Amino acid sequence: MSKFDVSGKVAIVTGGNVGIGVNIAQTLLQEGCSVVTCSRRDYDSPPAAEGVSDAAGRIVHMTCDVREPEQIEAVVQRAVNEFGRLDILVNNAGGSPGADTSTASPRFFASIIAINLTGVMVFSQKANEIMQKQEEGGTIVNIASVAGLQAAPFMAAYGAAKAGVINVTRTNAVEWGPKVRVNCIAPGLIWTDAASFLAPTEEARAAVSASIPLRRIGEVQEISDVVHFLASPASRYISGETIVVDGGGRLRGGG
User: Fold this and answer.
1) For position 54, what pLDDT does the model report?
2) What's this model's pTM, rounded to 2 decimal places?
3) Cα(102)–Cα(61) distance, integer angstroms
4) Contact indicator for 63, 42 with CB cutoff of 8 Å
5) How far is CA 175 from CA 92, 134, 169, 171, in A?
6) What is the rounded CA–CA span in Å between residue 244 and residue 255?
7) Which amino acids are annotated catalytic?
8) In whole angstroms, what is the distance from residue 85 CA to residue 76 CA?
9) How far apart are CA 241 and CA 219, in angstroms?
10) pLDDT higher than 90, residue 193
11) How far apart are alpha carbons 163 and 157 in whole angstroms?
């Protein structure tokens, strides 16, 4: 059996309807997991099921606002009721529009913190309750950002929230081990529809790519592959860590 084998595991992927999240869910499905995705938007058919030929019966999508603890509880319980256990939680939901820190309102700050940090804490708490009761425990993978490790102009609340996610990762790893491993991924610039405004033309994309040591913008699959690694037995002695996936951009102040 491969050290990367996650077949038969049950995963929740928050924000699993677009961009990085949908690719993470698809990757886990392709690797043999059953998956519950959630987002604030409802779907007749989960987007992550597209292109996965044997996804029928192994994926459920629920509407969930990660700012609402009752909705988080419902997602975790649905995973257990539907598939009998919970092995993997990927806290991917989040995001933020740009805002001038000097004029942004307290309500704006609170909303961004709630989506990007408080939701991670509550989802992790609820998942941990289930995982601690399982013989094999479980693993939690938090998606942060390089914005949590460096200055984030016009995204101060987002950067602060992601810095909090990195700290929560370390703290929960200490509190919840050995049953539950908790790790974090800090992506740099990854090519999604949401990120395309940063480089709307080929010339702009080339200029951004030139600022990154690996000379290109990251692809969503490159984040999903790290999630797969952290969810698998191959990472069995890793907990409390943050893996930066930015092509080296942070070393030059980019990403």
Assistant:
1) 87
2) 0.94
3) 39
4) yes
5) 21, 17, 10, 6
6) 10
7) 158
8) 9
9) 22
10) no
11) 10
Instruction: Provide the token pair at 54.
Output: 């044997």
Give the 3-state secondary structure percentages of the chain, helix then strand then coil, rounded to 5: 45, 15, 40
Q: pLDDT tens-digit profile of 194-250?
A: 666 667 788 888 988 998 999 999 999 999 999 999 999 999 999 999 999 999 988
> pLDDT at residue 1 above 70?
no
Torsion over CA of 76, 81, 82 and 84, rounded to 10 degrees?
100
Question: What's the token pair of residue 164?
Answer: 């909090």
Dihedral angle, C-alpha 229, 165, 38, 83, nearest 10 ° = 50
3-state secondary structure of 102: coil
Taking the CB of residue 151, how many other CB atoms lie within 10 A of it? 9
Domains and CATH numbers, the chain: 10-190+219-245 (3.40.50.720)
Cα separations (Å) of 30 from 5, 14, 62, 86, 235? 11, 18, 20, 18, 19
CA triplet 211, 212, 213: central angle to 5 degrees? Answer: 120
